[in-house]
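User: Can you help me understand a structure? I only have the sequence.
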Amino acid sequence: MNRLVKPHSASNSKELGAVAVELALILPIFLALILGIVEYGRAFSIQVSMAEGAREAARYSAIHYADAKYKPADAQQKAIDAAPIANLKLTDISISACGPDKDSIVTISAATKYLTGLPTLVPFLPDIMNISATGAMRCGG
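Assistant: Let's start by predicting it. Here is the structure, written out as tokens:
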């Protein structure tokens, strides 16, 4: 008999069953943890992108508010261009009126769906994530 080949015994099959049970108990928790990390990273990335968009729109508004051709939609478009990952719409962006000795304040609020379908695994989570960012700059530079 070859010594490298181990004979099949009853104790090995019991151990295999225990491993399968342990895997069945741990795998859902592990997957929920991994999916949570993915969703948190995505939400953080979207929020950082939206903050950059809010700063860009506030800067544009603060510099160009006195121009005859200035429209708030131009500043809103700057925010959309600066935050491509957020999939923003003009209605997601609000800009305060600019003037002397005032700040241009841009607030972006958007709702995004989960990427991984995490709410189907954790029932108390909402179906969407509400993410917001604010940018401010002194009007007139």
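Now, to help you interpret it: The mean pLDDT is 86. The beta strands are 93-95, 103-113, 128-138. Let me know which part you'd like to focus on.
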